[in-house]
Structure formats: C-alpha cells, structure tokens
Amino acid sequence: MTARVCFATAGVALLLAALVALCSGRYAIGPLALFASLGHDGDITTRAVLLQARLPRLVASVGIGAALSVSGAAFQAVFRNPLVSPDLLGVLSGSAFGAAAAILCHATPVTIQLATFAGGCCAVGCGFCIARLVGSEGILPLLLGGLISAALFTALLSLLKYLADPFDTLPAIIYWLLGSLAQTRWPELAVIMPILCLVMGALWIGGRLLDVLGLSDDEAHSLGLPIGAMRWGVLLLATALGALTVSLAGMIGWIGLLVPHIARLLVGPDHRLLLPFSAMLGAVCLTLADTAARTLSPSEMPLGMMTELFGALGFIFVLRRLRREGSL
Amino acid sequence: MTASDPPLSRDPPLPDGASLPGSAPGLSAEALSLFRSGRAVLRACSFTLGAETPVAVLGANGAGKTSLLRVLLGLERPASGTVRLGGRALTELSRPMRARAMAYVPQYREKPPGFTVFQIVAQGRFPHGGLYRALSPRDRDEVEAALDIMTLSALRDRPCNTLSGGEYQRVLLARAVAQKTDILVLDEPLAALDYGHQRRFMALLSALAREGRLVIMTIHQPDLAFRHARRILLMQDGRLVADGPPERVLDSATLGAFWGVPLRHHDIGRDRFYTDPEEIR
C-alpha cells in the first residue's frame, strides 16, 4: 500500500469513528438528526448532548490517542527498541503517584491535574538523574534509570494506596488509575489541546532527527550530529505529551506501544510519514475504544481497561507480522 | 585479480597528478595516551599520515586499534597528546567541521530496520546541512555518485535489513563516500565479509585511495594489507611497535615475532603469502 492510500484510508476511518462516537450512547442520535441539530432550528436536547458531552469527549479521545501514539513512536525511535512505550521513563507511574497524592489530600480536580503532570515530570527527572549516576553516554543508562524510577514511583503509589481510606479515597484512586474520558470538559481541553498539537507539530518538524536516532553514538558523532542533545530534546517532548495525556484522562496503556507498530507496518519507518500516520491511527483507536467503553454496558467501563484488553490482543497479531517481516 | 586493481601498491604516486590533489590531507598524532578503567589502552602513539594511503593498522585483539581510530576521529578524548587535522588541533574544530573532513565506517553492527539503501547513504550528507533541510540537487548527485561507485544503484530502494553482510558493508562505505571527506576511517571493514567480498572491498578502498583520499583501516589479514596498503602501523598493548611500508613491516621475521608463531613469507607477483616453515619442507 502506498503512503497516500494509507493516509486517505485513515482519514476516512477517523471521520467514520467520529460519526459513530457522536451518534452512539444512551441518548442515541441518528446521523441525520446529528446534522439537523447543528442548524438554527435544531433540537435543543440533542444539541446540548452533542456540544457539552460528546464533542468534548471526541476531541479529547482524538487528541489523547494521537498524542500517546506520537509519544510512543518517538520513544521507540530514541531507544531503537520496538517494545518501549511512553511509560518507559516512568512518566505514567510518576503521574499516577502525583494524582494519588492529590486525591489523598482531597484536592480539587484542577489541582489533581497539576499534581499529575508534576508527578510525571518528577519521575522522568528522577530517571534522568539515575541515568547520569550510572553513566553519561548511550541509551542503556537512560533505559535503566527509567526502569528504576518507574519501579520507585510504583512502590510509592502502592504506599499511598495502603495509606488511603478504603471507603473514600482508595476507590477514587483506583477509579482514576483505570483511566477515563468522562471528566473532560471544554475549559481544560482549551488549555491542553493546543499544547498537545504544538508538541506533536514540533516532533513532526524534527522527523528527520528522529530517523537518525537509530544510529550508534559513534556513527552519529562522526556524521557531525549532536546526538545526545537530540535524544534528550525528543525525550522531553515525548514525555511532556505522555504526562499531559495522563493529566487529562488517567492511565491509558498500550496505545503508545501498539499503534506506532501498526503504523510502521503500513507506511514504513520514515518519521515524517510515521508520526502523522500514528497520530491518525491512535485517534481512531482511542475514539473507538472510548465509544465502546461507554456504550457496551449500561454503566461506563473504564477506558484504560478497554485499551489494555484490545491492545494486548492486538499485540499478538503485530508481533506475528513483525517476526514474519524479520524486523524483530 | 581483476583488471581494475591498482598498480603495484607500493609504487610512488603516479606522476600525472590528475588523481592526486596537490595537498594531501594530513592527520597526525602526537604522543597519544588513553586510559580506560585505569588500564593504558594507548601509550604515547605518534605518527603523521599523509601521502601514503591506504594505511592499515594491524594488531592482536585488544591491542588498542579501535581506540586509536576513535581518538583520531575525536570520538574519544585522549588522556594526553594531540590529534592534528590539517595542522590544527582536533579540539579546535567543531563536530560538523570534523565530519566534513573525516568519515567513519564503524565495525559491523546490526542493520537498522526498514530504512532503504538510499536513505542510509543520504545520511552522509548531514555534515553538509542535509539534516535540517531536504536534500539539495547537489546532495542527490553526491548520493547517486556514491551508490554508483559502490555498485549499489540496483539496490537503492531495498530495505537495509534485507541485505547481506557484504552489501550492507558497501552501503556504509557508500555513506562515507557521500560524506565527501578527504579522510576515510574504517574499523575492521572486512570482519563480516567472505573472502571474495574482502578482495572486492579492498580493491574499492584502493581505488578511493588513488583518488587522493587518506584511507585508514584496521585489518587482520596481512596478505590483503600487503597487497593494498602502502603503510602499515603495527600495534601491541597500546603501543606502536612498527610503522613503515608493507614489505618492511609485514615480513616474516617481524610478524612471526609479533604473533609468536613461526612464519615464512613467499612473494608471488605482487602478493605475499605466509606459511608455517615447519610444515613446508
């Protein structure tokens, strides 16, 4: 398949997924009623459901799916490893810890979001510091630093859960950890979406840089490239993307690992194509997953659980394809 | 031997001068020392490289050959001593400046997944500004020329992970050629190649050297080094123990003492072979 066909297909898929997401739910809206409600004499209830509940959720799922996938593709480029995801440097564990700490203190939703972002940055900073202690060059110290930091913050999270009130804050923490888009509203989207778009755009413009991150340090230096600085820059941007998504929607696993793989199988490893295609594919996947999460059962299922379920199953298929192509 | 082989590799440069630019690129090392975890890896290595090219660096495993190349390229800072490139200390030159003067073909490693031959060779244009913008027509010409020299044009759109070891080694050399540097540094370029590819690869390197490039390589085969190199550096325990033309350094007495095995050499035409004197009566 040529790249153009892939992009066109993904575009159509994204439109269809958006339509399905807007129409389905407990208050079902037919496609015709959907367009009619946008006119001046549209049904007020339909309009309210669309503009206040479904549309912000759609925007959030598109943005978060895209951001997680782009972040995952960038991480995979830096670590030359197809099995890494945005959580590698501990951003998700750190964010979860931050959120849990804020919930434990009965903080307001905005404070919880800020604490989430701060926790993610804290964990990644911790990972970088450990990497510096272990060694200064190459990617192995970073990998180890991230692993240790993630383990550290997971342990701290467990401690918070242990300390939490089992009837009040513990359920809140656990529900939050499962990940959900149910809480997304326009005001916070208006702040975070532009930032997500900017960071993704920056990574896309630097797509050529991502291509060469697979070189060894010696090769890159002998080609005159400041590979260390490039690697850190890309990691910072990709980490910011991950932390922002967590602050919006909690822990949503697997998208960042799986989607870049599927995208690479379809459009190849060139990041100038891979990043936008991953973004589109991630948006489709998360939109569909979120629609399924809120429509399959009478009460809403956790989105993080849905993505993990489908992601884990999908990964079997991707691994088989990768092995057959000899790239794993 | 193929018809395209160089003339007697130890002959003086051809007088026509067309293939040899006037100023030979100079690379010199002054008393280079390097320590790794307290162990001396390089000990006071000094030499000046220039007109005699290719230069072959021979030595046992762990003798410091790769470290020497890395220090020459500026990938590692020596504990003491200076590397000079065209008379200027390497530390005064920015990384892109070095990359426009010296290209490096590292030891064989895993092939990167997915990227095509053309994309890998085009990486050689980064030091000329090719990273932050699209390839210019001139960049494309240089890449095509490099593909052509390495007879890779037919493979240009193949993903690198479908290539054989010999083909991939040629891709890496083509990238170094596309870098358009006066100096080419290769670390055991023959390691992953079968004998036929080794001979073809050495002929390619000789051809590049005849164009006036300073080619520096580590190698383990004394017969191929004798046939193609014009200067030999022999290393032992981080020290330069011999430095000179192949017929002097690569004789059976020096090499036999160096490796601690009895050796006798036989010159046949322009080639030199080594045998065990106790087996051949």
Automatic annotation (TrEMBL), chain A:
Answer yes or no on keyword Cell inner membrane. Answer: no
Task: Give the subcellular location.
Answer: Cell membrane
Give the membrane topology: Multi-pass membrane protein
Query: Would you name any one GO CC term?
Result: plasma membrane
- Assigned keywords, A-Z: Cell membrane, Membrane, Transmembrane, Transmembrane helix, Transport
- Asked whether the keyword Transmembrane is assigned, the reply is yes
- Main localization of the protein described in the UniProt heading: membrane
Q: Which GO terms describe its biological process?
A: siderophore-iron import into cell
TM helices/strands, residue ranges: 59-79, 86-104, 110-131, 138-160, 189-210, 230-259, 301-319
What are the recorded GO MF terms, alphabetically?
transmembrane transporter activity
The similarity annotation says:
Belongs to the binding-protein-dependent transport system permease family. FecCD subfamily.
Q: What is this protein called?
A: Iron(III) ABC transporter permease
Organism in which the protein naturally occurs: Swaminathania salitolerans
Automatic annotation (TrEMBL), chain B:
- Which top-rank group of organisms is this from? Bacteria
On whether Kinase is a keyword of this UniProt record, the answer is: no
One example of the protein's molecular function in GO is: ATP hydrolysis activity
Q: Which SUPFAM superfamilies match?
A: P-loop containing nucleoside triphosphate hydrolases
Q: Which UniProt keywords apply?
A: ATP-binding, Nucleotide-binding, Translocase, Transport
- Residues of the region (Disordered) are 1-22
Q: Which residues form the ABC transporter domain?
A: 27-262
Q: What is this protein called?
A: Iron(III) ABC transporter ATP-binding protein
The gene designation is fecE
